[in-house]
Design brief:
By secondary structure, the protein is of the alpha/beta class. The protein has five helices and four strands; from the N terminus they run βαβααβαβα. It has a single domain, classed as HUPs (Rossmann fold, 3-Layer(aba) Sandwich), CATH 3.40.50. Helix 3 crosses helix 4 and helix 4 runs parallel beside helix 5.
């Protein structure tokens, strides 16, 4: 079984510095990489007004962070240049297929995992999944706002899947 750790994107600043949510996802991806052994890593995130306005894709900043932690560049698959969760899944699929990946370790924040599972399981039904939740290190007010956004987004995703 060939596996890949799929790290879902999160905002960076205007200079390409990863923000706390993205850093926590990177740290979780790194710990999974160490734990799993020979897994490849697929980073998601291209460009978008709400998360990355720089000249490099968000996924490149994630790769750079993980390389700085000691992950060899040869461990990375190409970046899925996505800008939202459904694109994370749809743009990851051809990369995973091309590399004969059958098992995905999905890494995202705990507040986002329910929606990510829904989207990835619906979009990529032929893959085996494991899930690794990154802790969200934000204020309680921000954490509540993120959870409320996810509730609305899950309802939207469910209605999209029915149509």
């Amino acid at each position: 079984m060939s596996c890949a750790i799929v790290v879902l994107g999160s905002p960076n600043d205007e200079n390409g510095n990863l923000l706390p949510i993205a850093i926590s996802r990177c740290e979780k991806a790194f710990s999974e990489y160490v734990r799993m052994g020979k897994c490849r890593i697929l980073c998601t995130g291209g460009f978008g007004e709400h998360f990355n306005l720089t000249t490099l894709p968000h996924g490149q900043y994630v790769q750079n962070y993980l390389i700085d932690k000691g992950v060899p560049p040869s461990s990375f698959l190409e970046i899925a240049l996505s800008s939202f969760t459904l694109e994370d899944a749809t743009l990851s699929e051809p990369i995973l297929d091309k590399n004969l990946i059958t098992h995905i370790v999905l890494v995202t924040s705990e507040f986002h995992m329910e929606r990510a599972k829904l989207v990835f399981n619906h979009t990529l039904p032929d893959f085996k999944f494991s899930y690794a939740e990154a802790e969200t290190l934000v204020s309680e007010v921000e954490h509540q706002r993120l959870k409320e956004h996810e509730i609305k987004a899950i309802k939207r995703e469910l209605s999209n899947f029915k149509s």
